[in-house]
Amino acid sequence: MAPKAKSPLATPSKSSQVTVPLPRKASEDVLSKAQDTDTEPLPSGTSTPKSNSRKLAYPLPTHISPTTINNTESLLRFVILALICGAAIGSRLFAVIRFESVIHEFDPWFNFRASKVLVNEGFYEFWNWFDPTAWYPLGRTVGTTLYPGLMVTSGLIWHFLRLINMPVDIRNVCVMLAPGFAGLTAWATYLFTTEMSTPSAGLLAAAFIGIAPGYISRSVAGSYDNEAIAIFILMACFYSWIKAMKTGSALWGMLTALFYGWMVAAWGGYVFITNMIPLHAFVLILMGRFNNRLYTAYSSWYVIGTISSMQVPFVEFLPIRTSEHMAALGVFGLLQLIAFVEIVRRLVPGKQFQLLLRAFVVLVFVVSFAALVVLTFSGWIAPFAGRFYSLWDTGYAKVHMPIIASVSEHQPTAWPSFFFDLEMLIFFFPAGVFWCFKELRDEQIFIIIYATLSAYFAGVMVRLMLVITPVVCVASAISFSKLLEAYIDPIIPESEEELEEATAHQPMSKAKAKKIAAAAQQNKSEFNFTGILGGKGEKGIFGLDTRFAVVSTLSLFLFIFVYHCTWVTQSAYSSPSVVLASRNQDGSQNIIDDFREAYYWIRQNTEKDAVIMSWWDYGYQIAGMADRPTLVDNNTWNNTHIATVGKAMSSNEDVAYPILRKHDVEYVLVIFGGLLGYSGDDINKFLWMVRIAQGEWPDEVQEVNYFTQRGEYAVDERATPTMKNSLMYKMSYYRFPELFGGHPAQDRVRGQTIPSAPIQLDTLDEAFTSENWIVRIYQVKKEDPIGRELSAVSSFESGKKLKRSASSDTAAGVKKGRPSM
Amino acid sequence: MRTSFFLAPFLSLLGLISARSSTGDKVLVVLEPSVQKDDYSKFWKSLKDRGFELTFKEPKDKDAELVKYGELNYDHLIMYAPGAKSFSPSLSPKSILNAQFSGLNTLYFLSPDLTESNRELLREYDIEFIEPSLTLLDAFNHPPESSISTVLLPPTSSIPDSNGEIISASTSSGGPIVYSSGTVHTTGQNPFLVDILHATKSSYIGKDKASKGEDNDNASKSKEPILNGKKATLVSALQSRDNVRIGFVGTGQLIKDDWWGTEVATKEGKSIKTGNADFISDFSKWIFQETGVVKIIDSTHYRKGETEPRELYTKKDEITYSLTLAKHYTTSNGTSAWGPFEVDDLQLDFTMLDPHVRTALTQDKSTSAEIGTNYKAKFIAPDRHGVFKFVVGYWRTGWSYIQSSTTASVVPLRHDEYPRFITGAWPYYIGACSTSVTFLIFCALWVSLGETDKDRKGKKKAE
């Protein structure tokens, strides 16, 4: 599907519509240089006869009227865009076709559960929803601690579908939401890029974003997460901001604000917009490009946007209380000052006075900045959140917030993943930014800032690859279309004299012509090094062979890009991760469904209020699929609680058991991949549990104790006693060697041999182990009714006889404290 | 909770036809072959008089099944087999423990010649015995005509005061308890163990020369700590978490007909009625769940102005928790019944990990329960949301443990429950209104007083 979007550019019949803008552009460039104002666009009709007079590399049809060309253009654009949307949706359906219509991964399960509450119980119940099963026993006030945008969006869609008599299961709405919005993203990107460059660049950008793996990774069908709709809102918001800034219309400013409000409701990454738009405005001011349009656009965005963002319960007063939002406020104030000064300057003559006013602006700016700093340090304004610091210092999180660093998507990006996610776009991206520099219109400055910021952020966190993807698509589409335009353009350049003659022939005033000539002269001296794209006639493309060579190479790039994107999408990003797939020897697919097997076991076989303890990764899944209370989940808001679970997992049974009992834990769930070679298991995550626990109890849990003397993380014979006695190790490898019937028990993930000595669990009973041993569930034993230690109980059960009573070694007659019941 | 409340009258009806024990009346008596059943006839008769059905078995009897099809066959067990070296599988230590976990009350009678297999079982309860064949001796307190191994224990100094609910006051002040050729044990740190009877200060441990005629220097060589006085426990009891009661009596001679209701001569030469019958009656009544049994009839919680329990309370709600407790007693015609249980030290914890509210449960005289006593506590829910538990834990020696835990959540205010139009917000109301009004005035002025098209044209010309 996707190649279709680009193929028209290569065919001669459509080349006419692409060639049209170029001569116009070239002259525009010169004009804009000369006049330093917006040029009135030349009617496209004028360029056609002009080009007729030129030498052409290949013949163009001459008898088509401009209106037909225009109509065909817009029809083609519409069709191409529709096909791009189709491609964007289609390529995201691998997951549904390969597996089934199922919610993916971890966070989506929570979003899905929340959507069900919203749909079944109404908005107010959703808003006031207190979930006693999460973070047991702390509970979670869900309604006011989430970004409701996603659920409300899908809820509205669900209601709308019912309204038009299409009763659809909410699950299907949730599963298909991300692909649907991906289609919209392509459309928004088209509009955005068209504002930056030409519609053909817009179509390219739409095609790129439609299938770029960097975005697909977050928006396949079933990946029901905030990012699924956030990227669309981001692009729509940026588009309307550019529109507002260009037209100075309060209506577009308000649209920007509404999209911003939606974004705030949908995704924590809204802070990116909150800082991106002020930064753009600030840079424009610094460049001396302040005007009333900017003032209107920014003011209407800031005021309405801030008010609408404050309507989200989770955000509330953050926009005026945290450092992340202060840039927007500061720029707002600065704009008011400048506007005021501009008015005063216009009314009051006198150069000294003007100087004084400017000094006043600077002074007020400095003073208010100082006030901001003072407020921050005095605690009125919250300083930057930890996640924010980790953007500047990649080592910060590992030291101060292991909980954040433990998430794989918060790790710094590896270089190959840039190529993996963006393929050739990453090479065209700088060229596109260069083009923006070259023209440097207000909106192109936006691209430059966006590119710079997101390129940095994407390097810091894997997760932020998502933010860079749209700008990469836009920038590389610009450069790509420039290249194509240059090489498809049939005009063969003339010598310099001819060019000047041609310009002189154009109907315009003498003064203008002079200016143009002067500018052209200036251009010549300035851009000698810019080569073929420098806008100078004599260095254009002459032969048909060159055109053919370059255009076919570029087309090849596009085909490879499409191939790569499809391959990445189907092989890397379409796994639901609740269901795993492997290949049998004959090539057939083998579905590994251990997670759901185990979750349904819990659902069927345990009490409704049985508390399940697991590492936080599985909290949302247990809540969503097993419907049982959990101690910790993926909403990692309480570090201490997570550290408590980490401590229970990493300590020996004597330490862990009181923790389990105190938190009313009835079942403990661990993920073990050793049998199957599933590398995302708990033993591999174990060091993070240790680190997080160590953060809270540095005296009781120490990371060093889990490494061998040679500093290795071993689970075989070399494992340290602390490691071997830890609850996690015991639960993972309990009865594991028995499976091998005397042969060495091989852990397929770590590639190590597990000691065959049986592991004894005193405080836990094995309750369930899934088919491939991925999920293992243990039941916590009750205290012994007659007051023995549980280790004594299990040795009694195993037939050992007591030679001395438990307290015969200690002073007799001293009773222990009252046991907890 | 409510079902048990309605069932209570039926339960008490059942009590009319069963024994006075609150749990049941079937007793299995396991006697080792060397024990002559007839030597203890008075004890058996007293049990039968109290309404128990006795079944006698031997340790190796195959048909002595404690549990059948997952149900207890007997409600109580009297184990008088200290010398038995092996037991039938159904009476093995494991099956006895398992039966006790499901509610079998047990009374062990022991002797100095305790076999190792018995000791191993008893060590599971954290009880350690002195070496075999040693007995408690007292050269000062024994009947003149008997050997020093027949120790006379004056109840006033041998029964700890804390056992008031187990051993009645009349027994504690009654005649001496004859403790003849019995063993001594120590109760460990197990908090469920209670000492019932301990040795006197003048007693010591050794071999009875008179009966055995052997040299008595084993005791001095022993590495055991020297036990006497309070540390030498003779009778002890264990009440498990599930209120199953297990008693350990250091000698079976205690229930022998010879000392049951008979008189004994003290060293002063007086003849006093022995306290054995009273002591064992009190003790066995407690073990067999006749005395000291309390149960929760009903517990409920509700918000002020309501009567039904809620799953969710709002922060700062006024919550009332009420609990009805009943004590088991025996009516004058020998039937089982439940009556009021009045204490003044009950307390309620409102707990989430730690108690957030701890308050006294006081007797609620305003409402009278059909059975038992009502207790009530009123408190304000903490300003903290989460899953809370109403926890009552009453742990007193001699009484059943009273444990109750009910879960309810405390949630924040709903979006429409916050107070509106509060005084502190007036500056904001005024600010919002004045800004709006000013804006309107400004617009009106702008429209009416602003420059007209004519003016503008004129201006342009002037420029």
UniProtKB/TrEMBL annotation, chain A:
Q: Which organism is it from?
A: Kwoniella shivajii
Catalytic activity, per the record? a di-trans,poly-cis-dolichyl diphosphooligosaccharide + L-asparaginyl-[protein] = N(4)-(oligosaccharide-(1->4)-N-acetyl-beta-D-glucosaminyl-(1->4)-N-acetyl-beta-D-glucosaminyl)-L-asparaginyl-[protein] + a di-trans,poly-cis-dolichyl diphosphate + H(+)
Q: Which domain of life is it from?
A: Eukaryota
Pathway, per record: Protein modification; protein glycosylation
- The protein's name is dolichyl-diphosphooligosaccharide--protein glycotransferase
One Pfam family of this protein, by short name? STT3-PglB_core
Segments crossing the lipid bilayer: 75-97, 145-161, 173-192, 198-216, 228-244, 294-314, 326-344, 356-382, 418-437, 449-478
Q: Which UniProt keywords apply?
A: Glycosyltransferase, Magnesium, Manganese, Membrane, Metal-binding, Transferase, Transmembrane, Transmembrane helix
Q: Which cofactor does it need?
A: Mn(2+); Mg(2+)
Question: What is the recorded membrane topology of this protein?
Answer: Multi-pass membrane protein
Start and end residues of each STT3/PglB/AglB core domain = 609-667
Spans of biased composition, class Polar residues?
10-19
Give the principal location in a single coarse category.
membrane
User: What EC identifiers does the entry list?
Assistant: 2.4.99.18
From TrEMBL, chain B:
Specify the pathway: Protein modification; protein glycosylation
Q: Does the keyword Metal-binding apply?
A: no
Q: What does this protein do?
A: Subunit of the oligosaccharyl transferase (OST) complex that catalyzes the initial transfer of a defined glycan (Glc(3)Man(9)GlcNAc(2) in eukaryotes) from the lipid carrier dolichol-pyrophosphate to an asparagine residue within an Asn-X-Ser/Thr consensus motif in nascent polypeptide chains, the first step in protein N-glycosylation. N-glycosylation occurs cotranslationally and the complex associates with the Sec61 complex at the channel-forming translocon complex that mediates protein translocation across the endoplasmic reticulum (ER).
Residue ranges of the OST48 middle domain? 301-448
**Matching Pfam families, A to Z?**
OST48_MD (PF23358), OST48_N (PF03345)
Q: Could you tell me what this protein is called? A: Dolichyl-diphosphooligosaccharide--protein glycosyltransferase subunit WBP1
What keywords does the record list, in alphabetical order?
Endoplasmic reticulum, Membrane, Signal, Transmembrane, Transmembrane helix
Question: What are the OST48 N-terminal domain coordinates in residue numbering?
Answer: 26-287
- Record organism: Kwoniella shivajii
Q: Would you indicate the residue range of the signal peptide? A: 1-19
Transmembrane annotation, as ranges:
426-449
- Provide the topology term for how it sits in the membrane: Single-pass type I membrane protein
- Main subcellular location: endoplasmic reticulum
- State whether it acts alone or in a complex, and with which partners, per the record: Component of the oligosaccharyltransferase (OST) complex.
